[in-house]
Design goal:
The protein is α+β, with helices and mostly antiparallel strands and 90 residues long. The protein has helices at 23-32, 64-89; strands spanning 3-9, 12-17, 38-44, 54-59. The protein has a single domain (3-89), classed as RNA polymerase, RBP11-like subunit (Gyrase A, domain 2). α1 crosses α2 (64-89). The protein has a 4-stranded antiparallel beta sheet with strand order 1-2-4-3, covered by helices on one side. It is built from 2 helices and 4 strands; from the N terminus they run ββαββα. The N and C termini lie far apart (30 Å).
């Protein structure tokens, strides 16, 4: 999945996803909202059929990109844990 960086400032980041599916952007936004340094994290789409989801992130003190990377690492860790549990269930 391709991602376009629309805005990349110290405390604000806007990413556009080349898909019509909200699943991944929503997952990332949900993880971002767990971080106390996040002022705002949300997903928007111009039009349900033609628009592309955009992830908007605003932080208070830390760099937006650092906060995003931490959220992505956390999501990755959760999926690795899930894979491990599923492997044990076989």
């Amino acid at each position: 999945m391709k991602i376009n960086v629309i805005k990349n400032e110290a405390k604000e980041l806007v990413l556009e996803f080349e898909t019509s599916d909200f699943s991944i952007p929503d997952l990332i936004a949900g993880e971002l909202l767990k971080n106390e340094d996040v002022e705002f994290a949300g997903v928007a789409k111009d039009h349900p059929e033609t628009g592309k989801p955009t992830l908007n992130l605003k932080t208070d003190k830390k760099k937006a990109q650092d906060v995003l990377e931490k959220a992505l690492k956390s999501i990755d860790d959760e999926f690795e844990d899930l894979q491990g549990q599923l492997a044990k269930a076989k």
